[in-house]
Please model this.
Amino acid sequence: MTDKTANTKRLARNTVLLYIRSLFNLLISLYSSRLILQALGVDDYGLYNAIAGFASMFWLVTGSISAAISRYLTFELGKGDQKRTGEVFSLSLNIMLGFAVIVLLLAETGGVWFVANKMTIPPGRETAALLSFHTAVFAVMGGIIMAPFNSSIIANEKMGLFALTGIIEAVLKLLIALILVYGALGIDPLKLYSVLWMVTVFIQQGIVVIYCRSHFAECRFRLFFEKGLFKEMFKYAGWSFIGSTVGSLNDQGVNVAINVFLGPAVNAARGLTNTVSNAVSIFVNNFTTALTPQITKAYAAGEKDYMKSLAYRGTKFSFFIMFLISLPLILETEFVLNVWLTEVPEHTVAFIRLAQISSMCTLLYIIFTSVQNASGRNKTYQLCLSAMTFLSFVISVILLKIGLPPEAIYMQWIGIVFIKCIIFMQILKGTMPFTFGEIFKAVYLPIALVVISASAIPIATHLLMPYGWIRFLVVGFISVVCTSAAVLWIGCTGSERKFLIETVLSRIRLPLNRKDETTADIH
Model:
């Protein structure tokens, strides 16, 4: 078996494991969110999302360091240098422990002041809001310390653990929701939810630490410092810091701005939108999470053509996966929300539709960032894309300040994403030689043709049929059939189509062959 064949099989296996987790998480998460919204109410649900989002902004610096850790661990594993991999992990863990202490000091001083004095908190909810912030800060600190361990799992492509911890997280979230609805025993639901969610995060992180220490030789804590490696990682992280800082500002900063200008009720709509978007996006993130280490290792091994093939196919199929799920969701958003929730906050339907479109547009270039990150030359693209993201944040605040509806924020995000894609493709030419005509023919044209051809019949069905369960089921079925057919016969090349068909047929034959063998043994 060749290395590339083994890589393909490992990629497929890891993706399947993560999909099993995602499907399980999706079903439980949607039901849990409904119960949590019911227990907290719209205002407290929105308040928690705004405060937890603000707390996560203290991840700014450490988020960029996490990207550097993941890149260097994967790169060293790709080179096969076990000793160097252990040194990278040790240095990374020491750095993150230091940052966790710094985050605690900043959050418990300036962060507490901002929550108490600047955020819109309903009267009488000040104590609950501060407790929510404290627990969110401790959860963020845990995430900071966990960064090297999570990076090791990704670098070693052990996605089974992610599947397990994701399932445990979903079950614990459901348990929290049931406690809030049926067993709160007079305790303030927001306070109880904040504490229980922090405990859930710690349980999940503890499992990851135990696994990594048991299975990966490099995951050992020891005091280690090397000036050259430290400078190299921070040089890489410095440019990633700009991107992660501006990205967090645009995401969570807009959340805070919505709280200031419009109040917690709109934060609730945005929180529900993020729940749905994350549930859908995780199907694509599973694919990209499994793909990124192979891109980095291919670059480290000097296999540029293989890396290019991974990037092209990864972009196409990540978009197709997202589109397969998003098309029926966009058409039937209102019905899904009415079935899912007892109370649908205003703006939620439009938010979800626009967020799905924005997420699909982002996939036009996001896989290629793994190629650029693998090269270590991230300065130019981080500066350019960060400038566009910051512009988006400024525009969002202006739109809210002048009184436009919050849907305008999502609309301008879609436009900014297209501009980012154009800019990034120009930057990428220095790392991965290609012409725009080549990538348009190999990636963007098939995507456009699939979207156009697969959308027509589902849209017509949605418009012609009356609202209800029958339309929902028919639109969903037709969307899946049309999208699958369009992807297979329009979106795939001949070799890709042959591979997909043979893979499906082999999965069908396998249980049949086993049945025949069992029958033969009986006779």
About this structure: The first helix runs from residue 3 to 56. Residues 514-523 have pLDDT under 50 and may be disordered. Residues 265 and 279 are 21 Å apart (CA to CA).
